[in-house]
Each structure stands twice: as C-alpha cells, then as structure tokens.
Design brief:
Oligomer: single chain
Structural class: alpha+beta
Shape: globular
Length: 271
C-alpha cells in the first residue's frame, strides 16, 4: 500500500493540486465523494467544543471511508498520517488563539450550507471528476464500498451510538441475528475509544455464513472490529439485548426515532 500511495500522490498536475488546495479542496472532495460514495468531511479550527458558525474556520474538505483511510488531493493516507502531514501543518494559517481541530462529516447538500471559504462550484466539480477519472492509479488505491449502499452520511450516523437500533431494525426486517461486539484488546492508537464496562463498542447482525452486516454493509467481524482499532473481541447476543434494554430505558424516544429511520433506510437501499 505504501508504494501505491507514493506513486499516486504525484499523479495530479501540480497546478491542479494548488488550485484545489487554494479553495480548501472543496470541489475535489465533492467530486470524489460522487465517484466513490464515500463520506465528505470538513476539518474546522474551533474555539469551542460546541461552536457557533462564527467560531469555526474551515481548514480542509476531504473524503474518508468507514475505516481509517483519508482520500485527498495529496493521496491516500491513514487518518493519523493525514492529521500529522496535512492538518497540523495548516493550523498556523487559521489559528488566531486557543482552540483545536474539530472534524465533522456531512452529506453534499449540508456541505453547501456551511460557512466555508469557498462554496462548491458545479463547473469545477465537473473538471475535478474528469481529472480523477483520468487518474486510475489514484482511484484504484481507494477501497470500494461494500453492498448494500446506504448513503454514506446516513451510514456514518449509525456507526456510533445508533448501531444497536440499526441492528435491531435489520433483525425485524430480515430475521438476521443481532449481536454486540465486545472489545478485549485495542491497538495502541485506539486505546481511548469509548466502550462499555463489558467492552461493548458496536452492534451488527450475523448472516448464516458468518459474515456480519451493519450500516456500512457486509464485512467480516474482524474487518469491522479493525475500524474501531480492536485487535481481540467477542460477540454476544445477550449483551446486545442488554444494550437495547438500557437504551430504551434511558433514551426511549431517541432509540425509537433511530430504529424507525434505520428501517426506512434499509427498505429504501438494501436489496
């Protein structure tokens, strides 16, 4: 992978990369999200943990997958490499005092309503799509999404905090068994990942062949665990039932809203 990344980093013309970066990569990112169905992100400089629009400054727009990969005009990198080599170097440009980097994901419609320095341009997006399509080496370095294809921003919303109602909605509609994933050991960079007292970090359903499925589609349990930096884990349908019971007891309205929305998405997009 390292060699592939190095080769494709320089594949876009220098003047194109400079043009995209001068506009915070907005048009490149929208073009790439349309081509790959992966998720649009914006990194902001924020002076607050719960900022108003006038308290955030856009740093860069980019696309990322459900794992830890970022797809950017400078190439395909892990989120850790991207933060170190791109985002941290951009801090002096936007920081005028105390603050920090705030990462948020959006769908394309929402992106256009944000306080960006440059709004997406359909003409420039079309040119970016043409340039990306001409760079097959870059595109081939981007892992494709796995079926079924729920819109990326919706899939992301059901990754953290809403995965349990999604699994229960899948169970109701398909009969597949919902189960909790319980972490036993994290990789060093993910030690701070939020988890329950029993190690709970995610919910999925299990197909008869052992393949798991969540809002991002079908994948092995090991691959799903790796998204969260989990090296060793167990699965438990009993723990899943406990998670659901607790959510219904403590936040019943939010649970039901997430459950209903999950059913809508599954019916609309899962074939």
């Amino acid at each position: 992978m390292g060699q592939a990344r190095n080769k494709q980093r320089a594949a876009f013309a220098v003047e194109l990369v400079e043009e995209w970066e001068n506009e915070d990569c907005v048009n490149f990112a929208v073009a790439l999200a349309r081509l790959t169905d992966w998720l649009l992100h914006v990194d902001w400089w924020s002076t607050s943990r719960t900022p108003r629009d006038d308290e955030i400054k856009p740093m860069r727009v980019y696309v990322a997958n459900s794992d830890d990969l970022v797809f950017d005009v400078r190439g395909v990198r892990t989120i850790f490499e991207f933060n170190e080599r791109i985002i941290m170097k951009a801090v002096p440009r936007v920081a005028t005092g105390p603050g920090g980097v705030l990462t948020r994901f959006y769908d394309e419609e929402r992106l256009a309503s944000l306080p960006l320095r440059f709004q997406p341009s359909e003409a420039k997006i079309a040119l970016a799509i043409e340039a990306i399509r001409a760079n097959q080496q870059f595109l081939s370095a981007i892992p494709p999404r796995t079926a079924p294809f729920i819109p990326a921003s919706e899939a992301a919303h059901f990754t953290f905090g809403r995965c349990a109602p999604f699994a229960e909605a899948m169970h109701q509609l398909t009969g597949l068994q919902p189960t909790a994933m319980l972490a036993k050991r994290f990789s060093q960079k993910f030690e701070g990942t939020e988890r329950g007292e029993n190690g709970y970090f995610h919910s999925v359903v299990i197909h008869p062949d052992g393949i798991a499925e969540d809002s991002w589609g079908r994948s092995s349990l090991t691959e799903i665990a790796a998204r969260f930096g989990v090296l060793e884990f167990a699965v438990s349908s009993e723990a899943q039932a406990q998670v659901v019971e607790r959510l219904r007891r403590n936040s019943g309205d939010r649970y039901e809203a997430a459950f209903d929305r999950a059913k809508q998405l599954i019916l609309a997009h899962r074939r």
